[in-house]
Amino acid sequence: MVSFQERVRGVILSIAFGDAIGATIEKLSYQEIKAQYGRVESLKTKWYKADAPQEITLGKKRGNGIVTDDTLMTTALINVYLTEERHLDAYDMGNEFVKEIAYTKRYIPEFDKEAMIIDRLFYPEKYIFMRHVLANCEPREGGLGNMINCGAAMYIAPIGIVNAGNPRGAYDEAILFAMGHQSSYGLEAAGVLAACVAKAFEHGVTIEEIIETAILFAKDGTKMAIKDLTTAAKELRARSAEMDEVIEVFQTIISKYSPMKDDVHRKIEKLGIPSNHYTPSRIFSIEELPMALAFIVLNEGDFYPTIYDGINSGRDTDSIGVMAGAILGAMQGDIVIKKEDIQILEETNRMNLIHLSEKFAELAKRMIKDDIFLNVKRNELF
């Protein structure tokens, strides 16, 4: 039986693995990845921008195990839990979480130096600082007006850990916390992923039960996208479809819910042209979570094939790898990750992820035991 500590290590290390291996090819299309790499299946992969001028790379480095903001924000959230030692909400987003990302220096692997996490973040994540610090917003309205993307879902897995075995609690807490950052289907994805991670901690849980949990809690376009993609994944798996067909089917389906397709770059030519990209909607979904779940179904939860297929599918490759990794790491523990991959991640990123996992696992166990005790006391009322 996989222990709780092994599952927590599995979540955190799998997030870092999916992030790092996907980061080398982020924003490339499936066809571009295929043309330049064939197929990426190693952390020791050269970033496709490695030889580009500094004005293109913005001083960043990737490849060979370097993680991105997905992992940095995940560890920041863990540090908030370690500080507060309780469940969180949007007020913690505007207080302790802001301190973690904007006022505390950390080693940033992409910069190869210490800096504030906010110096590395994309604009929708910098929005946290603008809304809570500069605009002094009502914390529960912090996510309003933000670009709708996967920014909250990519780091939300720790909420699934402290609610292990309680998907409803994970969903509710993720929504209460992430509403300080995101809204609409960006917020919804955060809640659903946290619920999936919490469900994946249950002993003997199946992939089918995790997908049922996702569909149970998901709303609107997120629910429809997960249903459509995971149904297609079952059919494609049943006839052992080749990757080219899988990608064509998956991307055709997700295009109904995410209209940007391969056009993920922000260029001057787009200015002033109306679109629905990244705007609130009840019929849209982020791509990353439904795609991650579909690749889990396609590969029946086999860790490396799922991550490899997910990151090689293109577009937001690192976050697809992160979300699939978080669920499978919770389900199967850290034993599924090769020791050499763990060593690369630990040495390259100087984050001591195993030590952080151990500390967080101890806290999560105490929080869960406290929740169980409170539920017992509530039952005594009847």
Automatic annotation (TrEMBL):
Q: Which Pfam families match?
A: ADP_ribosyl_GH
Q: Which InterPro entries match?
A: ADP-ribosylglycohydrolase, Ribosyl_crysJ1, Ribosyl_crysJ1_sf
| Record-given protein name | ADP-ribosylglycohydrolase family protein
The beginning of the lineage is: Bacteria, Bacillati, Bacillota, Bacilli, Bacillales
